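Handoff note, outgoing to incoming analyst
You'll be picking up this chain. Sequence as last confirmed:
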Amino acid sequence: MKILPKNNPILTVIIVNYNSGIYLSQCVSSLVSSSLGNYSLEVIIADNASTDASFLNAQKINNQNPKINLIFYSLPKNLGFSAGNNQALKKSNSNSKYVLFLNPDTTVETDTFKKMIDFFEHHREVDAATCNLILALSGQTQPESHRGFPTPWNAFCHFFASPLPKLFPKSKFFNGYFLGHLDFRKTQKIDACVGAFLMLKREVGETINWWNEKYFFYGEDLDLCWQLKKHGFSLYFYPGAKATHYQGISSGI
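Most recent structure output, in case you need it:
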């Protein structure tokens, strides 16, 4: 394990890997190419007992970015997404101001981290945020990165009355599941986002006790977003920063 630099990182990036194939290496390659300005960060890649070569191959990437400290951490067994993230947090520098949970099947642009940090630093009312998460296959914003809570009515409109949101695209009443009535080009408060890219103030994460380990995989991101809302914290969708998501790799789909 590398020794942390003398200056504490402002951001901890946590990636939990499980059999992600080439995508983990692509992810790590993209983040070590980041331009960070005056910021520095640590990246913790925790492996959930993968049976492929994804974790080993990612460790071979030569990080020549002095602003980024890469830490590779093997978990004793497949603990699932929530527990894997919580275990990786224990290896992080407790002095970092922000924590970003990032899926191994994502890639970031060179300025993604800098823009996200700037967004938090210049908007103190922001407690948590996601970026404009672009689906690799479609090139469109992933709907799950900009969504409401799946209340019975929202779920009914989405799953059983799907023509209604299309017939009334500007209606908040019919478009609550993905908040489709809102403009994805604008920065705005949202109820929930997908856990593929979720950044929080560290003090906020500590207040809500991070991830609920009752969830092994799926649903844990909605639960975390619900905890944010229950404790009075704000969650924002920030389209000024972008990342690409190769959806389904983390789950083996």
